[in-house]
Backbone:
């Protein structure tokens, strides 16, 4: 185990535990204000925890509250590097000296630090910009330099706080590939709200809500079988939570969704039904003679989604073609019936 | 009624109400006209002699020397003061900030009296200093102290502002890259606020150069020891108005030069 953290920050109502194995990348997901940035700040040492313990590679970085003497290792002594949304390259230093800043800070002589910096600039593919000033770089180039600068400190833990959210959409894929490569053998925590970041960068996913962990597990499992609304949303899935009844899930609001369960469910226990919006059909009236789930709703929102149109109702979303949309003449407020085959619905225990 | 104004940098046209130009022009005239009036009164034939007299040279030299020393002291003490004010929070910080700024609004003569009752022979620390064999009142040291007292807030205010504007994000990044607080301060904080520090230092220098009230109260007016250029101007005004005007012009020239130099160096970093 590389990182073992238990932390509590009262004024932000955050109380959670987080582990990162050696060489493992964990994605921290959650809606705004769920405690992701607070967690990163406590791990980086820029925010004090009221209580808890943070241990990195067997060394205690933070111990606060009950139990043992108070410990707080300052940020510069932690071996924890942070890559933020914005590159935040020092504007008064050249690209090379920005990357050499970390090694220089740990006492490496100037010549060797610059050599080291050149190596990392080459590693992230921006070696030719070494002599430039940060203001002469594009956003994507600057973020690459910021990655090199963080890696050049050879951190024990790398914290990435929405590293691609300020990057041009066209440049994000190549940067994501770069991160995928450099994170492979590294202990890292990636804060993100992008399913691609989670899917491509993280081995494991931890979902936060209101400062608590609401779901965690291997990335593929969480994205395929989410148990939290947030994970379902970023995975692009409809999620109905309720109680099992045979192979169906009955929600508190009275929705009944029949599906297929891999494992037998006990009636009355918590269960979840998950299905893709593309498996959902939209009708004005209940379709006849079909073995489908038919769920009534009112359209709340219509938005473009790739080549299709996503129609949202109070509980569920459906992807239909623009032609179907025109034919159905839908607008927010229109009552509709959503229909999905039971064979398209995965049902599992919550 | 509006008029189109083209801003210098963007070429963007902003609608300014036309009437603002009237008070703006009046204000500008009010600042420029007295300088012009002074120029008309200079006897250019004797200008050279007047500004190179022994007492004038002594005063100019003393002014430049003390104002430079003051600027150094302002940087040495003002930078840490600004950093503490801008980067920490403690009980009574608001009160501390107000006290630091007090000399900015106090009449200089009051500053002089305050200094006299602190460091003068009969002052709070006067006896202690005397025992140590130090007498500061009515010495060049006193001139520098008086100037520092009134000039320090200028540096603290402009640097405090620059530090708050710069924010702490770069400093946090530097720390997570392994830089100790001293290295962060020297390599990140200071370089980022260098323009603010420079303008603060220039303001302090200019304020020190023009200091009169606190100096004459605390340091007196001894030629070559405490009689700086403003004091010399005031003294000459009684006996030789021509010399006073000439020296005033000299003071204006030095001040303009200082501000001009720093402006150009800031435009081309």
Residues:
């Amino acid at each position: 185990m590389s990182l073992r953290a238990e932390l509590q920050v009262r004024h932000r109502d955050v109380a959670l535990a987080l582990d990162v194995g050696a060489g493992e990348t964990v994605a921290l997901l959650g809606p705004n204000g769920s405690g992701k940035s607070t967690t990163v700040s406590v791990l980086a040492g820029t925010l004090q925890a009221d209580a808890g313990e943070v241990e990195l590679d067997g060394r205690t970085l933070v111990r606060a509250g009950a139990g043992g003497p108070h410990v707080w290792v300052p940020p510069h002594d932690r071996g924890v590097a942070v890559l933020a949304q914005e590159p935040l390259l020092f504007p008064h230093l050249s690209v090379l000296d920005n990357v050499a800043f970390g090694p220089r800070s740990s006492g490496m002589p100037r010549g060797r630090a610059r050599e080291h910096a050149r190596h990392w600039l080459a590693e992230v593919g921006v070696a030719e910009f070494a002599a430039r000033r940060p203001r002469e770089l594009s956003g994507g180039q600057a973020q690459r330099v910021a990655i090199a600068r963080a890696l050049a400190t050879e951190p024990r833990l790398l914290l990435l706080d929405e590293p691609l959210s300020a990057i041009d959409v066209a440049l994000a894929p190549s940067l994501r590939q770069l991160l995928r490569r450099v994170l492979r053998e590294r202990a890292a925590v990636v804060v993100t709200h992008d399913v691609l970041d989670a899917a491509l960068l993280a081995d494991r996913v931890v979902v936060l809500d209101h400062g608590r962990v609401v779901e965690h597990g291997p990335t593929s499992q969480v994205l395929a079988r989410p148990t939290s609304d947030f994970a379902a949303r970023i995975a692009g899935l409809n999620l109905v939570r309720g109680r099992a009844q045979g192979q169906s899930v009955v929600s508190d609001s009275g929705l009944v969704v029949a599906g297929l369960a891999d494992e037998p469910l006990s009636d009355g226990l918590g269960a979840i039904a998950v299905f893709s919006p593309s498996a959902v059909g939209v009708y004005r009236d209940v379709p006849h003679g079909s073995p489908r789930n038919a769920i009534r709703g009112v359209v709340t929102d219509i938005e473009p989604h790739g080549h299709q149109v996503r129609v949202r109702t109070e509980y569920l979303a459906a992807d239909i073609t623009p032609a179907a949309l025109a034919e159905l003449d839908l607008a927010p407020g229109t009552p509709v019936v959503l229909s999905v085959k039971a064979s398209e619905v995965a049902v599992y225990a919550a | 009624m509006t008029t189109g104004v083209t801003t210098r940098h963007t070429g963007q046209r902003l609608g300014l109400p036309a009437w603002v130009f009237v008070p703006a022009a009046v204000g500008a005239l009010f600042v420029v006209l007295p300088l012009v009036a002074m120029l008309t009164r200079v006897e250019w034939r004797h200008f050279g002699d007047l500004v190179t007299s022994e007492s004038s040279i002594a005063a100019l030299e003393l002014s430049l020397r003390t104002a430079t020393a003051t600027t150094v002291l302002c940087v040495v003490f003002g930078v840490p003061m600004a950093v503490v004010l801008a980067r920490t929070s403690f009980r009574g910080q608001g009160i501390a900030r107000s006290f630091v700024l007090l000399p900015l609004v106090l009449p200089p003569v009051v500053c002089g009296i305050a200094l006299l009752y602190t460091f003068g022979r009969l002052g709070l620390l006067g006896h202690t200093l005397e025992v140590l064999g130090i007498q500061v009142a009515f010495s060049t040291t006193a001139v520098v102290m008086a100037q520092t007292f009134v000039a320090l807030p200028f540096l603290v205010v402009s640097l405090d502002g620059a530090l708050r504007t710069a924010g702490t994000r770069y400093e946090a990044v530097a720390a997570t890259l392994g830089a100790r607080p001293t290295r962060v301060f020297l390599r990140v904080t200071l370089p980022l606020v260098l323009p603010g520090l420079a303008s603060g230092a220039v303001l302090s220098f200019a304020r020190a150069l023009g200091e009169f009230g606190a100096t004459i109260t605390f340091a007196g007016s001894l030629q070559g020891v405490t009689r700086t250029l403003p004091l010399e101007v005031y003294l000459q005004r009684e006996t030789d108005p021509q010399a006073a005007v000439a020296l005033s012009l000299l003071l204006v020239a030095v001040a303009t030069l200082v501000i001009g130099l720093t402006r150009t160096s800031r435009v081309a970093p």
Notes: The first strand of chain B starts at residue 2 and ends at 6.
